[in-house]
Each structure stands twice: as C-alpha cells, then as structure tokens.
Amino acid sequence: MSVWQERLNNLSIETRAFINGQYVAAADGKTFASINPATEEEIAQITECGDIEVNLAVKHAKAAFEAGVWADLAPRARATIMQKLAALMTEHAEELALLETIDTGKPISDCRAVDIGGSIHTVQWYAEVVDKIGDEIAPLDPKYLGLVTRQAVGVVAAVVPWNFPLMMASWKYAPALAAGNSVILKPSEKSPLTAIRLAQLAKEAGIPDGVFQVLPGPGSVGKALSLHMDVDCVAFTGSTNVGKLIMGYGAQSNLKRVWLELGGKSPNIVFPDCPDLKKAARAAAGGIYYNMGQVCTAGSRVLVHEDIKDEFIQHFKEAAKRYVTADPLNDKTTMGPLVDSIQYEKVLDFVARGKAQSTLIMGGEAQKINGKGYFLEPTAFETQADDLLATEEIFGPVLSIITFKTQEEAVAIANNTHYGLAAALWTSDLSTAHKVARKLRAGTVWVNCYDEGGDMNLPFGGFKQSGNGRDKSIHALEKYTELKSTMIKL
Ligand code: NAP
Ligand code: MG
User: Fold this and answer.
1) Residues 99-112 pLDDT 10s
2) Whole-angstrom Cα distance, residue 187 to residue 174?
3) Rounded CA separation 293/291 (Å)
4) Ligand 1, atom 48: nearest CA belongs to which residue?
5) Where are the beta strands (DSSP E) in 95-222?
6) CB distance 264 to ligand 1 below 6 Å
C-alpha cells in the first residue's frame, strides 16, 4: 500500500457547504456523489446547495460586508489573517493535495507542487501586496483636493472549474479577500473537496463569518449567484459557452461586474531558427500532456515550419514518453485519468472523429489502470489548420500538429480562432520574437518556453472569446474594487 493510500484510509472528508462560519447540509437534504476518476468509486456524498443556500449565503455575505468586519479592517490586519491562512494551508498541504488527487485524478506530485503550492503562494502574494499599494491624488486646481481611491465592490461570487480546482479558486478569492470583499465560492461539482476543506482553514485563520463561504452544487448554483441582485461581482473561470450565459445573467439582473476567464486553442509556433528543437519538443509535450491536457492554456496546436517538421515530430515522440498513465496516488506518476466519464467520452469522441479526418501519429487509445479509470494515452495528430481537432477546444491530451511555410502564414493560422488566451513562439531572432509576439492576439505570449505561468507578477487572461479582465498580478485587484473620486473644496 502506498503512503498516500494509507493517508487516504485515515482521512475524514468534510462534505458540507460552509455558510456563515458553519458547515451545513442542504435544507432539502440533497447530495451528489463525488467520484474518483482513477477508480470510478464514490468518495463521498456532497451537499448539493440550492436556492435556499444561495440566498442565505448572499444574505450573510452582504451583512458581513456592510458591518465592515472585514472590509473596514486596516489592510495590514487583513494581510496578517491571510498570512495565517497561507500558513494553515501549508500545514495541511499534503491533505489538500490528497483531496485534489482523489477528486480529479491529477497526479499527486503535481497537486502538491502546482495546485496546492500555487494556491498557497497566491494567498501569500495578495497578503503581501495589499498594504503596499496606495491610491492617487488627482492634479486638480489647488483650491480642491481630489482623491481617486479604490473600494471593495461588495459581494463577490467566484464560480470555478475542476481542472485546477483550488488554484483557480485561489486566483479569485485571494485578491477579492485582500481587497476587502465578501466571497462566495462555487466549486465545480466535479471537484468540490478542497474548496470545502479550505473554508475551515479560513475560519481558523480568523476570516470572519460570512466573509468566506463555500457552496458546492451543480451549475445552477453558479447561475443563481450570477442572477442574484445582491451579488455585486461574479468572477468566473470555465468554458466560453457558460461565460456567455453568465454575462447574460449579469445583464438580466443588476449589471453586476462580470469577469470571465474562458477557453483557449493556443498556438505554439516553432520557427526554423528555433534555438533548441529538443527543448521545444519537450515544452510542446508538457504544453499538451501536463494535467492530461485539461489546461485552459494547453498548447493544443503546434505550428511547425515544413523544413523542420519531421525532426520536430521525432523529438516530440521521444519527449512524450515522459507522460505515462498510471495510478495518480503514486509520487512518480506523470499522467492520471481525465476528470470524469463525461469529459472522457467527449475527448474519446474527438479522437474518433479525428481519426477519420486527420493523421494519427501517436496514441489514441483509452486505457485502464487495475481495470478502472478514465485514462487516455498521450495522443497527437497531423492536421490541416481547419480540421476539427485543430479548431475545437478538446481539453484532453490530444495535440494537433500543423505545418506552415512562411511567418505570415504562421501568424494567420495562429490568430484564426475565436480564442485568444495564450500563444508561444520559438526563434533565435530577436526581431522575429518581438514582431510575432506583438501580432499574436493572445493575453500571454511565451518566447522560447511554454506555459511558464508560475510568477504571480504577470496578469493572466484572454483576448477575444477567451474572456475579459485578468487574474494574478496587482491588476486582478482592479476587478474586485470600484474606483471612487472624492472632491474636497478647500
Ligand atoms: P464549465 O462547464 O463552464 O464550468 C465552470 C463552472 O461553471 C463550474 O463550477 C460549473 O459548475 C459552473 N456552471 C456550469 N453551468 C453554469 C451556469 N449555467 N451558470 C453558472 N455557472 C455554471 O467549464 P468546465 O468544463 O468546468 O471547465 C473547462 C473550461 O474552463 C474549459 O473551456 C477551459 O478552457 C476553461 N478554463 C479556463 C481557464 C482560464 O483561466 N481561462 C482556466 C481553467 C479552465 P459544474 O461544474 O458544477 O457544472
Ligand atoms: Mg471528482
């Protein structure tokens, strides 16, 4: 028995919603199953929130905000409590990683390093920054004093996906809390466990009741929050389709601020003067197989110059050997299952349709570990730029390799998508790097690397239908604050 399996056997799992500082079951007693996608077994029955819980949580969030129990603390005091939260998350990092792995199938070592490590870093970072940024004094006629200040927006609903459950949540609640808001977190029904556990740690850290609440449940909980007249802002990460709905809910209700981080079909362009083709191939493999391709910035389209295509593919196949499906509770595992049977069927369907239209060069077979689980081996196709696989976001370990002849053609193919989340290019020429980076319609451009997204200083988000607003960096604080002009006649 692995050490993680042993820890799992001794783990007691909290399954209820967290409202006004208490764990509670749903008023109607409803629950839903949380399934481990590696074993297909039920982990627990989770509280399924409904309208009663949504209304209750919003009422408490609003009351806490208006009472000023959090919003009116000195920024330094909020920072201290958030540092305490980061410390508690660090103390419980292994437990959080374990919960994330069983809930989603993500490899345990990735959960520790990236999901939980990244979440802790995010909380620390916003705690560090919140008492370091001041406001502005406007250059008015000296008969006046003009203050330009930022104030918390109020009640923030964070509706987040399952691919990096705690980390995507942290990118929302950490800046929102730092700025003084009340936050209601709605995790995906595919991955509620870490959010539920976090609530207790937030309480222990000293975050007042009503300021941080967690409502597990289906998409309808996100919908109810987004339509609620007393929710001032909804921060969403998920699919473009649901993002469009949420913008509509904002319009139908109170014009709440709507911030969207949506999908992508990110191009990774390899020019013939690529400084190190082996390195590029390794980065390309990581770009599509890390987290089983369930990454919004997945480098799902590699655009490679025709002169180096064969050599690149050879290196790519070699690099992809690092990704082997196995038990996600093993420290050495690099690839777990897809998150659930729905996502699995969706991706397998893409692969089947891809086999009919494009050229399979690697993988393509479903797999089982110990006879169970939603595993798919690393898969790659050679495609035309407008093939199904090269245009739809698959959200699985399925790469499209597209050949190009000229720089102009590469840029045109790269931008020929309604997404604009990320892009990358590989070149030894400084001018090519700058020129192409500027032309790419994407919120993040990597040059001679892929998906190096760890640094909190860089804003993260999309052009076009990949969303609006930015997570991470001090710019994320803008989403959770309103600008106020105060003019004083002296
Ligand atoms: P999704 O189906 O859009 O779900 C995202 C969240 O919205 C979940 O909590 C979901 O709840 C909830 N939801 C579903 N229907 C809703 C509705 N009508 N109103 C309000 N909320 C609703 O996305 P997903 O499949 O979980 O995640 C994959 C997508 O997220 C991909 O497109 C990916 O590119 C994108 N993503 C983007 C980023 C980024 O930062 N840009 C990061 C990660 C993922 P349930 O899951 O409980 O139904
Ligand atoms: Mg699950």
Assistant:
1) 999 999 999 999 99
2) 15
3) 5
4) 219
5) 136-138, 144-152, 155-159, 182-186, 212-214
6) yes
